[in-house]
Amino acid sequence: MSTLTNNPLPRQVADAYVDDLIALDPTLGTYLGAPGSARRLPDYSPDGARAVADLARETLARLAEAEARPGGDSPVERRCAGLLRGGLSADLEVYQADEHLRTVSNINSPLHSIRETFTLMPTETAADHADLAARLRAVPASVAGYRASLEAGLDRGLLGGPKQVETVIGQIGTWVGDGAAGSWFAQLTADGPAELRAELDAAAAEAAAAFAQIRDWLRDTYAPAVEGAPDTVGRERYARLSRFWNGADLDLEEAYAYGWSEFHRLLAEMVTEAGKILPDGDPWQVMRHLDEHGTVIEGVPEVRAWLQELMDEAIGALDGTHFELAERVKKVEACIAPPGGASAPYYTGPTEDFSRPGRTWLPTMGRTRFPIYDLVSTWYHEGVPGHHLQLAQWTHIAESLSRYQATVGLVSANAEGWALYAERLMDELGFLTDPERRLGYLDAQMMRAVRVIIDIGMHLELTIPADSPFHPGERWTPELGHAFLAAHSGSPADTVESELIRYLGMPAQAIGYKMGERTWLAGRAAARAARGDAFDLKAWHMAALSLGSLGLDDLLVELSAL
User: Which PANTHER family would you find in this protein's record (predicted)?
Assistant: First the structure.
């Protein structure tokens, strides 16, 4: 454990927890830019998970003592203490349910964390490449620890979903270079200095071999063992994971009904907007028309440059009018995601010193032609004013919050809710008046409403309402979820498939977008009602973005009081 000063307050306890967690999870250290992490990888074995859980328990005991000290109940300390207690309690609940023994996902597993950390490492100097080689050498032990956890899960009948397993086997095949392309790890080290060439080649080969071995084990041993197991998790597990992702105990039936109400509202808007492009056109037929005849960007380098320009333009238009941005927050980079991952774009935050800026990532899925209607709103979500403005602002003011509030304590529904609110804000501010772009925005909103419906519906096996245009009265299954998403999404078939696999492998995470957006909108409405004509949207935005992370219940209280 880290050494704390005498009589620490909650924020100091939280920051000490971050330091101790980095020691156990060096990938977190790389994400934050903490020194001393670059050569190691986490222990994903049952022993490694136990060490993280023990740290959480010890930190909660320290926190209780810190809250009782003079000053421990001040507003800033109270917010941090509430987030830390809620986050660690949810972590422990998930650990005690042995979820780590069956974590197989197409986007959120130890294998994905290992690979992603390499995309965040600097590769500018010989020392950087030496660190890269050392970490590649650490891959076999880290992967073996993950396999040991899955083996323990098999022994106890705790099984990953078959669809997840099948998908991950295919993803690893891409990473290790099935065919003539060579492994992703070899490509990662290809530009290393000549004096380290032999070491880099050998380390990359070891990493690729470790991934190939677990791919073969998943295919030959794990997949047959989980064949016939459910891909859904049931109410008890779903409620537990919902607390983890959302930082609140949601009324799941009410959330399901809200998803349907948003579906019907958005469908009416989409029909209206689609008619501006093709009279009497079905919204999804119109999007297929836009795929062929709408505005497109040709070429991967060209789309990366276009996305960069889109974010730069948004910063220029919003800074000083609806936000007040620090100079280092204004830098964000558009990047192309490495092949073999899920289809969803994503964001990675800056290091704590901003030496590596925030970055948005576009998975191309082999495409070289990119219609813009479904990119504009997505990049408002991933970049500006979405994830980048929130997470970079937290990093910018971390000293006045705590490192935990600005980084590790992130509640998914808070961040995803803000990013979805950011899409809506750009519509409110008049950035989406072009029918193509606005239809794409509405399609993105519709996807998030559909997520609420099918994520809760599939895992809880709820009944489809009688007024649904789709299979009324039937109970949800993954097959019906796939068909419903495909029928109400402008995304291509591979994206629809990837999304469904994601929902099955990360239960309750996908509902946080709409649940979080609803919280942000309700908080803004309450603050506006309380302040009347004195309400200042720019001031509210900056105060809201300076709260740090909070669970949804606490977030609503704090936003309403700003």
Answer: DUF885 DOMAIN-CONTAINING PROTEIN, GLR0591 PROTEIN
